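User: tokens in, sequence out, please.
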């Protein structure tokens, strides 16, 4: 899984909302997302396809239902990437705080 694809997929507000709901509520059937305003079932299907192809969600079939869940590996990869830049941001914020305190 490439992070560029992950971030590209999550850059869409609807797909981001889908992933957030799955993270909060766990595994859900596709029908649980029909309450999302302005998103038709075919559009929702396309959003899930993008998320699957980016490696963010898993799909399993239970009779006639499509059940989705977030892939833990995707969340771990995002977390690892974010943590790797933590020191960079901390140093930048420390420099900003010092610069602001000098102006006072």
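Assistant: Sequence out:
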């Amino acid at each position: 899984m490439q992070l560029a694809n992950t971030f590209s997929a999550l850059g869409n507000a609807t797909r981001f909302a889908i992933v957030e709901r799955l993270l909060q509520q766990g595994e859900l059937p596709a029908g649980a997302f029909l309450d999302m305003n302005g998103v038709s079932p075919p559009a929702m299907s396309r959003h899930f396809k993008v998320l699957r192809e980016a490696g963010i969600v898993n799909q399993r079939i239970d009779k006639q239902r499509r059940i989705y869940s977030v892939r833990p590996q995707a969340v771990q990869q995002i977390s690892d990437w974010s943590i790797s830049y933590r020191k960079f941001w901390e140093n930048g914020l420390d420099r900003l705080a010092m610069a602001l305190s000098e102006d006072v």
